[in-house]
User: Fold these one by one.
Assistant:
Number 1:
Amino acid sequence: MRCPVPLHTYPEPEHGQEESGPQASGITSHVIDVGKLFLIIAFYLIVAGKDVYDIISERYDKRTKRSTLIVDAERFKTYDEVFDRQNLDNIFHLMKRGKIRTVECPISTGKEANVYKTNKVGGGFSAMKVFRTSTATFGSFLEYIDGDRRFQNIDRSRRGIIYTWARKEHLNLRTMFEKGVRVPEPEAIFRNVLVMEYIGYEGKPAPQLKFLDAEKEEWEEMWEIVVETVRKLFVECELVHADLSEYNILYDGAPVFIDVGQSVHIGHPNAKELLRRDLGVISTFFRKKGIEGAGDDAEILIKELASSVEDR
Ligand SMILES: Nc1ncnc2c1ncn2[C@@H]1O[C@H](COP(=O)(O)OP(=O)(O)O)[C@@H](O)[C@H]1O
Ligand SMILES: [Mg+2]
């Protein structure tokens, strides 16, 4: 998704800026007039190309040795109450670590998190998921954290739970990626901000299975891959996705599982129930796509995996 209004904001030098020393940082926003805006857009189109679409970027002033985060406050107001000062600081931290260069528009704005396309330092894109720290539904997070032996004695404050949730998605991605499951490769985590491989083609995000047009044979092929992926997640990663649906699988030439924050270890007391739910939801979707045996395949897999865990 491209930002509809290529508006950039620039920081005014702040009073005392020169005295602020090397690498001092600041977050500034300032709406400029239309004439100046036109000149800046022209400049950016010629010199910096796609940067004109960025809504967060960093500018380093060699003379003052000062880095400034450039934020389009107007656009944030429209899109995004998620960007409070704390989140901007977190993003700035990731920029300074070289994990992202600039932030573009949101790909998705959800109840618990927003996902942004970001530009990498060396070129190419990443996806940045920012979990809302003020989310009203964070209470349900604990159902997927408590009982997962990987997360014990966590900070149970609102922020602590959300940071743990983000860390959990990062760890789940890392485990899955290292075992060869097709998921976005995790790139960085800082507090409630997760950076991962961007799944897309020519700058456009890959579609969710829900919105994919495909032939019957292609759905058949995808169903086989989905079944194999669920099996691999369970047997090799010892994980259950726990929110599997046609919305949490992208299509990038093959199915890519995403949104794994809630994924639990198979030792979790509800793991079997969650596995049953996952396979129920996804087989119903594939049945609607004409894969008549999807329900039976799911039943067989549930039995196979459930008995494998009892044998351990
Ligand atoms: N790594 C990624 N690359 C491209 N798009 C992504 C990526 N991760 C998420 N998205 C997009 O953002 C949407 C929401 O992400 P998701 O992780 O499912 O969060 P939510 O908790 O809001 O459902 C996805 O459906 C997908 O369209
Ligand atoms: Mg999702």
Number 2:
Amino acid sequence: MTKALIIGGGIGGPVAAAALQRAGIEAIVYEAHSGPGDGIGAFLTLAPNGLAALQTLGMLDAVRAAASFPTTGIEFVNGKGRRLGLLPDGSDQGPPELRTVTINRGALQSTLAETAQEQGVRIEYGKRFVGYTETDTGVAAEFADGTTAEGDVLLGADGLHSPVRRLMDPDAPRPDYTGLLNIGGYVRAEDATVAPTRGSTTRMLFGKRAFFGYQTAPSGEVYWFANFAHAELPREQITALGDDAWKEYVLELFADDHPDVTALLAATDPARFRPLGVYDLASLPNWSRGRVALLGDAAHAVSSSSGQGASLSVEDALVLAACLRDLPTPEEAFTAYEQRRRDRVERIAAEGRRRGNQKTGSTNPAALFLRDLMLRVVFRLIARFASHAWINDHRIDFEQRVAAPSPR
Ligand SMILES: Cc1cc2nc3c(=O)[nH]c(=O)nc-3n(C[C@H](O)[C@H](O)[C@H](O)COP(=O)(O)OP(=O)(O)OC[C@H]3O[C@@H](n4cnc5c(N)ncnc54)[C@H](O)[C@@H]3O)c2cc1C
């Protein structure tokens, strides 16, 4: 195996290319957008497991230096701001360089792309993948500009609505809408009128009708996000409503909650209020077919409530590259990759769905009272018994030789 074509230059694509390059396999990334930070959302968190995978590839220092700050715990409060619980994620007990960080998504993508390029990876922007053909000896990708590219394998790192997945397996299930819309924005330091959050802790508020989270960055900027229950809306309908109307709608959702929330929302540019649906893809029957395989959200999207999508995509990249390096055929490599990854990501997808389900509000005061009571107990139990170490402490030994997969 000498050459891999990777569709998608988001998070998993450039990392998979860097890992393959290190494994002695040439990898070229094809990204539809015209640059690494184009048309993407506000921010996300990278957990110790994802950071450790980046460290293996020599990409960690650049990522940490790029507009990131630690987020090692969550303080949960009710709509009135009264504390329900504090959940450290445990990463402050580990090596400082692997503490969970919040990072601007554009900065993360640019940094991953630049670091991969410094390591010899070629990334071609403005290349929208539209189809592929496969022969016994290789695969050819087709792009909207009429060009083609040939390689030994084709890897779909093309996200939640993956065109590679649709073509590889037309019967694959579509991502499931979780019933929540998400928006994320930030308020400039000079416009932030709320008291800063403490240390490296995000404050998350179970409001009357919706869920809100925010954290003050060391720069003084406040990063926030909101989740609220809503019927699924097609992209065009979301856009048609207009940014000002969305801002008004969201302000109304939090009108009965702590004034800090409305202060932050009011100080935010209306352009930040256009929501995205929260989707997951709990279990995809086929992760690969022939010379084509999927990674990251294309294979197993987890809800944003898990805070793990980006980290899992990076883990996939490392495992997939090691399998392609050590096994003689694409089919064997893809089977070994799936066997190493499926259980873990499906368990995290289920966990993300469970967390998201707690985020819906109620207009009934008795129901809200009971919810807050129940949450206090739940957070105490989680803090005591339900460690998330199995998620965050996962490490991949890239140097270890991958054994042949067990028969399917
Ligand atoms: C609102 C929100 C908040 C989130 N918060 C977190 C968080 O806190 N922590 C976390 O870990 N994860 C979070 N996630 C999930 C995380 O963003 C994804 O899991 C992660 O981006 C997946 O990486 P990926 O490389 O698989 O896909 P993506 O990052 O989506 O990259 C896919 C790339 O493929 C490109 N592409 C698509 N179609 C084509 C085509 N036809 N041709 C060429 N290129 C194409 C896209 O332009 C894109 O650049 C969040 C997601 C959302 C929506």
Number 3:
Amino acid sequence: MTKTGPIPAALVSLDALERAGLADPADRSTLEAVAEEFRVRISPAMAAVGSAGVRAQFVPDVRELRVVPEELADPIGDGAHSPVAGLTHRYSDRAILHATQTCEVYCRFCFRRETVGETGHLAEAEFGRVLEYLRSTPAVREVIFTGGDPLVLSARRLASMLDRLEGLGTLEVLRFHTRVPVVAPEKVTEALVAVLDRALPVWLVIHTNHPDEITPGAAAALRRLSRAGVPLLSQTVLLKGVNADVDTLEALFRALIRNRVKPYYLHHPDLAKGTGHFRVTLEEGQAIVAALRGRLTGIAQPVYVLDIPGGHGKVPVGPGYLRRAQEHWIVTDPQGCDHVYRDL
Ligand code: SF4
């Protein structure tokens, strides 16, 4: 048996970041202003990686203080579609459950950065009202546990919530959106995996943005999950200074399929406050996605999507390969060459 030492603590203060060499004491006064505005937490696994593409996601940056009027506190409109506390019901067949606001890391680009933090988990009475709403709304067939990060909850608490959701008898699928298997893989314990292996299918969508996040520990956690038959998808945010180039994304998506994770969504960055330094244009995003199409196997291609600001939903944003030309279509191949196609 391999001997492991105690797991180091997460870095949650500027003092801790400076001691770890992740922040410069010379920047202290400006970073204090950032940390007052947006929470700081870097998990031991991510602090140990420390590469530029990983650090940029978690280490506070003075540019976060630049907020433009178009940036929103709730960019995708969670609040506008919340029938009861803790639940967002935007699309008829599925609803998002905010079981906690806590995360193992606080990402500097997070679109829920105004709400995430150690503010406690969804109270039992609130969960009761969520169950009542779902009971009276059988059109909802899928419940999506999301951020904060639902896998910070104990296996026992999760089992209790999942049992009662299953007991409604109206759901077909349960889904988790989480960074835990990558940023805190030691939390993917056998007890947690056992909770996810149940009668109703539980799908896991892993949020990961850089190939350096797929450490041996993360790979082992993903293996534990796939062995239990949990279908694994990924979501990635396109971020300048982290992954907004073809080589980095190719390496990430290849690493994911090697670990039995199907790349699902590539998100255009949301208009969250103080995140302008991460933002790319839609045209830049489309060019990267077009280049990936020529290079990567189909199973490693995510869909490039934009969450329309204000809560109007998520749509694919290209690039397009098809355009109308009078009586026929012009189709562009992955190398950029056009071809005529006619409907018969
Ligand atoms: S909700 Fe997700 S993206 Fe936001 S801070 Fe938590 S882990 Fe990061």
Number 4:
Amino acid sequence: MALIDCPACHKRVSDKAKECQHCGFKLATRSSAEHDRELRRALQDKRDSILSQSMLALLIAIAAFAYFYVAQPLPDSWQAQLAYAGMLVGSIWFIVNRVRLVFLKKKP
Ligand SMILES: [Zn+2]
């Protein structure tokens, strides 16, 4: 964070501020290159978030499957229902996140 001079009142304001905190002057003087960089970083953040969510979903599905395989709960017990639910939710969430990632990549 750096301090810049407000073009209107010449007081020191943060370069991150959208407007001057002293006089309210709009500091929308960002170059298009800066704007592009911000946009790309936001997109990358979103991609990372979806990717970690899909990894978490996969982990849930695998954990549920491993539990079901190792513990072998009775078919009608709540443990089995929980394992089914975990596998189902994990797989669906994983697929949803992969689809979101594909759509995100298609955006220019
Ligand atoms: Zn100002």
